[in-house]
Write a structure and sequence with these properties.
Length: about 210
C-alpha cells in the first residue's frame, strides 16, 4: 500500500490502471483510492475501509474534516478518545519552536491530568484547574495553551470547545521593577562562579535579552 503526502496537486497527478490505495503520511488512516474511473477518499477505521467521498466533488480539505469526524466517533456516534490520548497526539506535532514546545508541554502535563473521555470535559473542569494555579502569569499561559489544544480538537474530536468564554480569574500584570546597577553588579560577580551558565546570564545582562 503506497504512502503519499497528499495534496491537491498530488491527487490530480495520481493515475492507475488498477485499484490502488494511497495512504496519507500527514494524516494516518486517511487516504485516497485511485482506480481507472474514479478517485475516492477513504478511511481505515478499526481495520475496515470506509468511503468518505469522491474527488473532485469533495476536495481534500473537506475530506480531511469528514475523516476527523469519523475518527472521533464509534459506531454508535460517541467520541472514543480520551483527553490523555488527544493531548499526546497534539504534543507530538512539529508545529512549535523547541522552547515554545517545552513550555506548552510542561503546562499541559503539569496542570491538566483528566483521566476521562475528551467530550466529558466541561468548562467547569477547565476553570477549576485554572483557578487552582496561584501564579497569575502561569494561569494565563495555562489557559491560553489549553484553549489552543481544544481549538485543535475541533472538529477532529469535538464539536465545541469547553473553553469558550473562559478567562483567567485574575488578570496578569507584567512586573515593572528593574534591577539597579548595584544588583546587576552582584549578579555579574555571582555568575563568574558558576561556569557556562553564569556566562549565559552575563550575556543576557549585556544584551538586555530574555532567555527565550
Amino acid at each position: 500500500m503506497p504512502k503519499t503526502c497528499l495534496s491537491d496537486a498530488k491527487i490530480r497527478s495520481l493515475k492507475s490502471e488498477k485499484q490502488v490505495d494511497h495512504w496519507d503520511t500527514r494524516t494516518p488512516s486517511f487516504g485516497i483510492r485511485i482506480s481507472p474511473r474514479c478517485k475516492t477518499f477513504i478511511a481505515n477505521k478499526g481495520g475496515t475501509r470506509k468511503t468518505i467521498g469522491h474527488y473532485p466533488a469533495m476536495n481534500l480539505q473537506e475530506a480531511r474534516r469528514r475523516f476527523f469526524e469519523l475518527k472521533a466517533t464509534t459506531d454508535t456516534g460517541s467520541p472514543q478518545i480520551s483527553f490523555q490520548q488527544a493531548r499526546s497526539e497534539y504534543l507530538a506535532q512539529d508545529r512549535w519552536k523547541a522552547s515554545s514546545k517545552k513550555q506548552i508541554t510542561r503546562l499541559l502535563m503539569r496542570h491538566f491530568r483528566w483521566d476521562k473521555l475528551l467530550d466529558r470535559i466541561t468548562s467547569n473542569d477547565v476553570s477549576t484547574v485554572i483557578d487552582a494555579i496561584s501564579a497569575p502569569k502561569e494561569a494565563t499561559h495555562a489557559l491560553a495553551y489549553i484553549k489552543a489544544f481544544f481549538s485543535w480538537c475541533v472538529p477532529r474530536y469535538l464539536k465545541h470547545s469547553p473553553c469558550t468564554g473562559l478567562h483567567p480569574s485574575t488578570r496578569y500584570v507584567p512586573r515593572e521593577r528593574l534591577l539597579s546597577n548595584e544588583e546587576l553588579a552582584s549578579i555579574w560577580r555571582a555568575a563568574d562562579k558558576i561556569g557556562d551558565f553564569g556566562r549565559h546570564v552575563q550575556l543576557l545582562i549585556t544584551t538586555g535579552q530574555r532567555c527565550n
